[in-house]
Every structure is written in structure tokens, then in C-alpha cells.
Amino acid sequence: ASFPWPVAANVDTALAFDPDESALHVAYTWTQGATTAIVAVTSRDFGASWSTPVCLTTAAEGTARRPAIAARGGTVVVAYEHASLGKGPDAGLAYSSDSGRSWTRGVPLAASAAAERSPDVRSLDGPGPAMFFASYVEANERVILLKATGSAPGSWTKELTYPEDGALSALGSAIVLPMPVPAGEGSAGILWTDTSADDDIFFSGSAR
After folding, report:
1. pLDDT over 70, % of the chain
2. Which residues contact 29 (CB under 8 A, 6 or more apart)?
3. pLDDT tens-digit profile of 82-131?
4. Strands 75-84 and 88-96, bridge-based pairing
5. Which phi and psi angles does 61 have, rounded to 5°?
6. Residue 10: burial class (beta carbons within 10 Å; 0-12, 13-18, 19+)
7. Can you state the percent helix, strand and coil of the chain, rounding each to 5?
8. Are residues 92 and 57 in contact, defined by beta-carbon separation less than 8 angstroms?
9. How many whole angstroms from its chain centre is CA 24?
């Protein structure tokens, strides 16, 4: 499949497969007037055909970029970074509870007054109900890890702040890594980069 785009434009893309619905979901950047939006499409025949693109952001949110997408049990979650006047980047969210047929837009992933960037979202593999983990970089000095269930994808609880005290002075990007636990509830850790020397990669896990 291919999607039209202006010549010489840079496109951010993300892909997720929902094994429970046999559905492919793609989020990508798209022009929206003078800004860039996040758009989503779905395929239910393994890429042979695609749904009509749905815009997940508005021009009022400013330029959006860096989409991340996860899907499980018919729930699809898209996190993205967008411009926020007066405080720099912010982390936004959109989700679908019916496998991409309809969307809830404009959900704030982060609720602080600080700048938030580098959002990521992943689903937990394995048996049991759908569960999602998200992360973002707050104020360029710490990583926030959140959790939500597939039945309530608009309600997120904080799992971890790293570091709890102090700051990471050379914090680069971060991604979330869901991990099954014996109790079946699931947990997650974060991988993050330190840019002070040669972009070392570190890991920290939530205590479950």
C-alpha cells in the first residue's frame, strides 16, 4: 500500500498489529493546513486494502510528530508529540475502542505544566485482558511510565518516575518495554539514552 504525500517531505510512521482482531493499524504524519497532523488507517486483510485516513489531531494542537501506536483486543492507542504554545512540546493521545472504526481524540497523555516529548506506547503480549504501557520524557530530565487497561484507554495511572529524585542532565529519547509477570498483571520498564558521551543505553524497571 502507498499513501500520497508532498514531494521531499519527511514522514514519521508507526505500525501495530492486533492479533485478536487480525488488524493492521498505521499512524503517520500528514499535512494539515500550515501544520502537520497525525493520521491513522486500518487494514483488515493484511494490507490488501486500507480504511479512509482519519485525522487524530487538530490544527489547534500545533504541529504533531513522532507517532507511536499499539493495539490489542480491539483497542488501539496512538501517542504523539505536538507543539504547545508557551511551554514547548507536549504529549497527546488518541484511542479507538472498536479496532479503528471510530476514534476519541485530544486526550492529554501528560498532565504536568512541564514540556513533554518522546512519547511511546506498547501493548502487553500474552493471555488476559488488554493492557497498555506508555512513557514520555518530562522537562528533559526524567522519564514517566504510565499504565492503562484496554477497557479504559483514556485513563492512565503513573507506574514509575525515573529518576525519583534528581535529574538526568543528558537524557535523550526513551521507549517503554512491557514485561509479563507471574501474577499475570504485567509490568514494564524503560530504555533510555544518555547523550553526554557516546549515546549509552540504560534500562530501569518498575517494581512489581
Report:
1. 90
2. 10, 11, 12, 13, 36, 37, 38, 39, 64, 65, 67
3. 986 556 789 999 999 999 999 999 888 886 778 899 999 999 987 788 99
4. antiparallel
5. -75, -10
6. exposed
7. 0, 55, 45
8. yes
9. 16
